[in-house]
């Protein structure tokens, strides 16, 4: 199934206020206009626009493409607009479906690690590395870290040491490339 990226544009200032993805953007647009979603901020913005006798503008800007590519596009687009100071009404979702701030989204943390020159301690903090060193000493591990050892370690530590799944990836990249 093809996926498309779209933006809802406020006709009052011609700026996007929502970035979305859908296999049928036009159908999704009409669903947005009903205002019966879980995104109260977006629904309120649409209501403000329609009360002025206008409608949001649908702009399809990406696609057709795969689901993974379009999800990546969506996160990059949200980040780009927010970096430019354009306020969006999006609720960014974690893998569990709960809204989370952009800076805690897995993709954002990967970008932060990359922007930091893959200096993972700047992203993850020292605790995870300290736990690894303790684990190596306690388990008397003498070999260089490999993916299997790292997975065993990451599965054994309390979840509060990592904000999301991308932290595991960042940590593994750091350990395997050192």
Topology of this structure?
Blueprint lengths: L2 E8 L4 E8 L2 H10 L5 H12 L5 E9 L1 H17 L22 H10 L4 H5 L2 H13 L7 H10 L8 H12 L2
Helix pairs in contact: 4-8, 7-8
Write structural notes for this entry.
By secondary structure, the chain is of the alpha+beta class. It folds into two domains: 3-91, GIY-YIG endonuclease; 106-176, no CATH class. It is 50% helix and 14% strand. α4 (106-115) runs parallel beside α8 and α7 (147-156) runs antiparallel to α8 (165-176). The chain is elongated, with a radius of gyration of 21 Å. Residues 93-100 have low confidence and may be disordered.
The amount of helix comes to 40-55%
> H/E element string?
EEHHEHHHHHH
CATH topology of the largest domain: GIY-YIG endonuclease
Q: Total domains, how many? A: 2
Share of residues in strands? 5-15%
Q: Quote the average pLDDT.
A: 77
**CATH architectural name of the largest domain:** 3-Layer(aba) Sandwich
Radius of gyration, in angstroms, nearest whole number: 21 Å
Q: Based on helices, strands and strand pairing, what is the structural class? A: alpha+beta
Shape assignment:
elongated
Major β-sheet strand ordering: 2-1-3
């Amino acid at each position: 199934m093809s996926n498309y990226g779209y933006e809802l544009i406020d006709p009052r200032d011609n700026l996007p206020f929502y970035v979305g993805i859908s296999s049928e953007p036009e159908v999704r647009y009409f669903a947005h206009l009903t205002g019966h979603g879980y995104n109260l901020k977006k629904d309120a913005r649409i209501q403000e626009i329609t009360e002025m006798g206008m409608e949001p503008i649908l702009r399809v800007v990406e696609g057709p493409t795969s689901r993974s590519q379009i999800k990546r596009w969506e996160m990059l687009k949200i980040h780009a607009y927010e970096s430019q100071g354009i306020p969006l009404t999006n609720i960014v979702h974690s893998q569990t479906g709960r809204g989370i701030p952009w800076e805690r989204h897995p993709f954002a943390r990967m970008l932060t690690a990359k922007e930091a020159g893959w200096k993972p301690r700047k992203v993850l903090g020292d605790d995870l590395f300290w736990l690894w060193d303790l684990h190596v000493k306690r388990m008397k591990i003498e070999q260089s870290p490999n993916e299997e050892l790292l997975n065993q370690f990451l599965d054994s530590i309390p979840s509060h040491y990592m904000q999301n799944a991308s932290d595991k990836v960042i940590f593994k990249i750091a350990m395997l490339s050192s």
